[in-house]
Amino acid sequence: MVYGFIESVSLGWSHPLVFGSLLAGFVCLIGFAFVEARVNSPMVPLALFQSRSFSGANLLTLFLYSALGIFFFLFPLNLIQVQGFSATATGAAALPLILLMFFLSRWSGGLVARYGPRAPLIAGPLIAATGFALFAVPSVGAGYWRSFFPAFVVLGLGLAVSVAPLTTVVMSSVGQDRAGTASGINNAVARVAGLLAIAILGIVMVKVFSFRLNRSLAGRQLPPMILQYIQSNEIKLAGLDLPSGLEADTTTVVRASISRAFIFGFRTVLLICAGLSLASALVAWLMIPARTE
Predict the structure, then answer these.
(1) Staple 193 to which of 18, 65, 115, 271, CB 3.0 to 4.6 Å?
(2) Could you tell me if 269 and 205 are in contact, meaning their C-beta atoms sit under 8 angstroms apart?
(3) What's the distance, Cα to Cα, between the start and end of the chain in Å?
(4) pLDDT tens digit string along 249-264?
């Protein structure tokens, strides 16, 4: 399912039907905004975006949740396909992040009353950016406690500082009669952000993986049919199954090249995630008020 989604997206950019569907989607989105601006009872009242803090909160959400969407899409592949973790261990790996957000949510909500929303919404994404950067450090064979656990703690702290103040800004930037609508719009932005990130940065991951793997295998004396097979299955990333009949030494070398290519692509995407998180902090600095409206 994962491979099929990435494959359909990455191949779709050059497929006329898929490209036409994307274009039609953008046209429909513009048309939706045009209609919503003119009906008496819009589903998405565009007047809400006249609030600078509401617009800033949704733009911050778009950037931050884009980073989270692609991270949680690719990180399990790293642990299972490259690091050799079991599915159970991979599922438990994110527990530090979940527990930090659970136990610190009330405390982080109080930060708004004490410091205003801008400060935590700058500090939180900055901390999260550090967490994303830490995930880009481990290589093949990394251990959990020394490599991934500290990164999860830092990322979890950054999200814990960000999420409750972000919700407060969204709810307080509009009137009480529009609070439910504002929350729904913000949730929709978060979901769309994750999907867009998987679609766009999934392509980046595949392209970078392919580039690094092809360059690594260029100096190897592999049969043309084997190279063709590998290139045609690069969409599977580190889950690429090598054909039978290869010598054991050759299999080991090619498998190592595949793992290193995945790590190279994963690092590239995680650094982009760090950049998106920094962009979130910049949005908070420019658009979120020091005190709630």
Answers:
(1) 65
(2) yes
(3) 45
(4) 778 888 888 999 999 9
